[in-house]
Write a structure and sequence with these properties.
The chain is α+β, with helices and mostly antiparallel strands. It is built from 16 helices and six strands. The strands form two sheets. Strands 1-5-4-6 form a four-stranded mixed β-sheet, with helices on both faces. A two-stranded antiparallel ribbon has the order 2-3.
């Protein structure tokens, strides 16, 4: 008989449910394992674990482990409930926490102290005072986004200003470098992990560039009140949370100032696609513009919701037509975070970090890592 493995059927069933995939997506024999009609071989169980996106060792436990998101979860569904985190989300969060832990230790060893702006405000703080503090720390003038011709340029500048303040910023639309494990913006737009030495912002890069801009601003607000969070913000709705309501207000005012949107809305409201026009102006998603003018009472809720659903269809169609590819190392620079990548490269070259550990932290190995370092040098 082949080298079969004695695994509890409950663990197989749990792994299937955890994956979010239907049982039909697995080989027929998996159902027989669940029904105790057969046992898997070691090699087949390894293939099953890979397909189910579950750590192989978990399958040998007596009961499913408690996998919790280590931060407040502000994600909501249409019925107000909270989504069960997918394997893609869990693996992304845990991977970011490993990077943050290494960065924190490295920075402390090199003499960095706590960042003073973290938690310096609260949800009871005046919005304008909070906005002024963020602009001052990041050196952001009122109309900074207009100075950039493209969404990509504005977002890149915004991220660099945030990194310069001491925050780690990561943009990724897949788990690590696995293009077969895409992150779903409907599940989460991003998350922020507060830390007094190495605060971290993660943005789901599968979202549109304009939407990513709002996510960064929203996550910044969380850091200024000292709160970690995971969120998806359907229709930019805070879901009744005081924390999310405050952070939404900060993000909206930071990117689309009240005094600017009122004037510009008067100019374009009677033109074709006014939300898109202002989106290009402020370098945010048309949804952000729509929500902003709705909240200011410039359009009705019915007008906003009608536009919201039409725009979602427009984005879905654009994604289907979008070509794949791109500059590999430029993509890595976003996935690893410009600041994080540079620190890891410096530590490896100086001997403070082993090459193997640098490979593990970045997910880049051998010559690929060497070429990435060469790319970083050209960016300085």
């Amino acid at each position: 008989m082949a080298n079969v493995v004695d695994i509890k059927p409950e663990m197989i069933r749990w792994a299937v449910e955890r994956s979010g995939l239907p049982l039909d997506d697995f080989p027929d024999e998996v159902e027989r394992w669940i029904q105790r009609q057969a046992k898997p071989t070691h090699s087949k169980l390894q293939k099953f674990a890979k397909r189910a996106m579950v750590p192989f060792g978990f399958l040998f436990l007596n009961e499913p482990p408690a996998e919790e998101i280590p931060m407040p979860d502000y994600r909501t569904l249409d019925d107000g409930g909270v989504q069960r985190p997918s394997p893609n989300l869990l693996d992304t969060v845990y991977g970011m926490r490993r990077r943050q832990a290494w960065m924190r230790e490295y920075l402390i060893e090199n003499g960095q102290g706590p960042l003073p702006f973290l938690g310096s405000f609260s949800t009871q703080s005046p919005v304008r005072a909070t906005i002024c503090a963020i602009r001052r720390e990041l050196n952001l003038p009122l109309d900074w986004a207009r100075e950039h011709k493209t969404w990509e340029g504005a977002l890149r500048f915004f991220a660099r200003q945030v990194e310069a303040a001491g925050v780690l910023v990561f943009f990724n639309g897949v788990v690590g470098n696995n293009s077969h494990r895409a992150l779903d913006p409907e599940e989460f737009r991003g998350f922020v992990i507060n830390d007094d030495i190495a605060p971290l912002i993660f943005v789901n890069a599968a979202d549109t560039k304009g939407a990513q801009m709002f996510t960064v601003a929203h996550e910044l607000a969380h850091l200024w009140i000292g709160e970690s969070a995971l969120f998806n913000l359907p229709m930019l709705d805070p879901g009744g949370s005081d924390v999310e309501t405050f952070c939404n207000r900060i993000a909206a005012e930071l990117l689309v100032p009240d005094e600017r949107i009122r004037v510009t809305w008067e100019r374009v409201s009677g033109l074709d696609k006014p939300f898109h026009r202002l989106a290009r102006h402020f370098k945010v998603s048309p949804i952000v513009i729509g929500r902003r003018v709705k909240d200011l009472g410039l359009i009705t809720p019915a007008e906003f919701f009608g536009f919201y659903h039409a725009y979602r269809d427009e984005v879905a169609e654009a994604k289907r037509k979008k070509p794949s590819g791109g500059d590999f190392y430029r993509t890595q620079n976003a996935r690893l975070g410009r600041r994080f990548g540079q620190v890891v490269a410096t530590a490896a070259e100086s001997g403070a970090l082993s090459w193997q550990e640098a490979y593990r932290l970045t997910g880049l190995f051998g010559q690929t890592f060497d070429r990435y370092i060469s790319f970083l040098r050209k960016q300085v």
